[in-house]
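Sharing a chain and its predicted structure for anyone who wants a worked example. Both blocks are below, sequence first, tokens second.
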Amino acid sequence: MDLEQIVFTIISHAGNARSNCFEALKYAKEGNFIEAENYISKASEELLESHHIQTNMIQKEASGEKQDVTLLLMHAEDHLMNAILAKELITEMIELYKTIYETKGAISNA
């Protein structure tokens, strides 16, 4: 795979991960935590794919196969970092929604 293909593969997986995270958040807002977890799991799979590609590039560079750093590669890395951050924050937000729904349930049962 050439650099451009690698970059767009990273962007694609990162974009899918980010989209899955926001779908998870939507389901958490509705109280559907099973579906929220399913989408977080899908996001994790997409991020893992991107991470494998990135790790492969790092290993090649470490073994002496230098890679040109292009604006497109930096753009892909930005997408990946944003997707990772989105997953971390949205996972925390889902936990907050769980607490809210549990509290509401306890209040309405009182």
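Comments welcome. The helical segments are 3-29, 33-62, 71-109.
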